[in-house]
Amino acid sequence: MKRTFYLMAICVCLLFSCKMESDLDPVIPDQDLGLSNLYLGGDKDMDRFLELYGLKNAEVQDLGEFYFVDNCILANKDKLLSGVYDINSDKKGNENAQVRTTALVSSSAWNYKLIKVKIDNSIPSSGVDNWRPEIEQALEDLNDVKNFRLKFELVSSGDYDILIKSDVGDPIPYNAIAGADWPSSGLPGSPILINLDYTNINDPSNPYDDIYNWTVPSAVKRRNIVHEIGHCIGYRHTNYEDLNEGPGSIGQIYVPGTFTTDPNSVMNGGTANTPWSGFSPFDILTCRTIYNYDWGEVPLFTYRTSHGGNLMSHHWSGDWYEYQNYSYQGFTGFFYQYQKSGTVPLYRYNHTTGLDYISIDSNIPNIDSAFTLDKIIGYVYNSSNSENIPVYEWYHPNEGHYFTTNSNEGYVSGAGWVGGGVAFYVESFY
C-alpha cells in the first residue's frame, strides 16, 4: 500500500496507501511521476467516477491504461468508457462503520465462488522482490475465514479472475506500494499492481530520510496483498473518514455491526508499511456478513441503554435494526437464525425493571415471575465443540446482565460484578 490507504475495495483493500508527496527527493528515480501525470479533469467518464465514489478531492494520476486515485485505487480507462463502474446504490442509511462499494463479486449463499488468481511473470521467483510466497499465504488467510463464500485459488495457466503483476509498463508512484481495481460487472477487480521499487517514506518532512527501493519484509508483503484483494472484492478503507474519502452518490455501503474506528483492520488506509497481524474481529464480521455462505449465521449484537442516573441495561439481537435507538456495544460471536443441528433456542426475556436477559433455559418465568418471554432471538450451542467458543455471563445491579466471549473481560473487572460462568456457546470468530 502507499503511504495512506483508502478502500478495503480490501487494504477491505478491505486498496493501498494513498498519500502523494509534494516534496520529492531529487535523487530518487521517477521522482516527478506524480506531478507530470497529474490528472486535472476533462475526462467525463473519470469525472463521473470520482463524483460517484466521493473522490472529487482525491489526487489522480494518469498512468496510460489506468487512472491512479490517491495512490491506491486503479480505475481502468476501458471500463470507464464502457460504463461498468456505473452501478446503482443500495445504501440503507443507519449502519455503523466499515464500508464496501455497491459493486460486489456476483455470488450467492450456499454456493462457494471460486476466484482464480494468477501471478504474472513480471513478479520475480527469487530475491527480495519475490512476492510469490506471500501471495500464496494471503490467499490461505482469506480461505481460512469461516463462513466466507469466496474461495481463492492460485493458478499458473488458463483463465484467471485476478492478475497480480509488477507495475513495469504502468508505473505507479514511487511511494505507493501497490494498487488494485474495484469489482465491476460482478467480477473481481483486476489487476493488482505491485511496485517493486517502492520507496519507504520514514519522515514526510525530510525526503532525504526516504529509503528508495526498500526491501519489503515478508509480513508487510502479506498484509498488502490481503488488503489489495479486499479492494478487488469490494471493500473500501475502514478509516475512510480520516482519509477524507467522501461517500459520493454511490459506493459507500456501511457494514452493520462495525465501527468507524478499527485500528487493527487490514483495510485501514495509510498502512503500507504495516506487517500482517491477522484480521480484526470486525474484518471477520465484514467477510461473514457481505459474503456469508450460510445466510442464517449472523452476529449476536449487543446494545446498552440508560434508565436514568447510574442505571443501565443491556439488550441482544440478531437483527441489526431492532435496537437502533440504543448504544451499540459490539457483537458476541455468531449464532443462527434457524435451528441448525446441535443448537438450541436462545430466549430473550423482559424483566419488570427493564433489565432484559437471554438464556437457553425455557423455564425462567417459572423460576422468577418478574420475567416474561419476549421471543427466541436465535439458536446457539449448549455444549462445546471444536468450532465454537463459550459465552460468559455476568451481572451488576446497576448494569443488568452482560455476556462476553472474553474470559478476562475488562468491562466486568470493577466492583459489583458477579458471575463468570458459561451461559452458552456461539460460533467462533476465527
Automatic annotation (TrEMBL):
Entry's transmembrane regions: none
Domain of life according to the entry: Bacteria
Domain DUF5648: 318-426
Alphabetized Pfam families for the sequence: DUF5648, Peptidase_M57
One Gene Ontology term of the molecular function aspect: metallopeptidase activity
Identification of the protein by name: Dual-action HEIGH metallo-peptidase
Species the sequence originates in: Echinicola vietnamensis (strain DSM 17526 / LMG 23754 / KMM 6221)
Organism taxonomic ancestry: Bacteria, Pseudomonadati, Bacteroidota, Cytophagia, Cytophagales
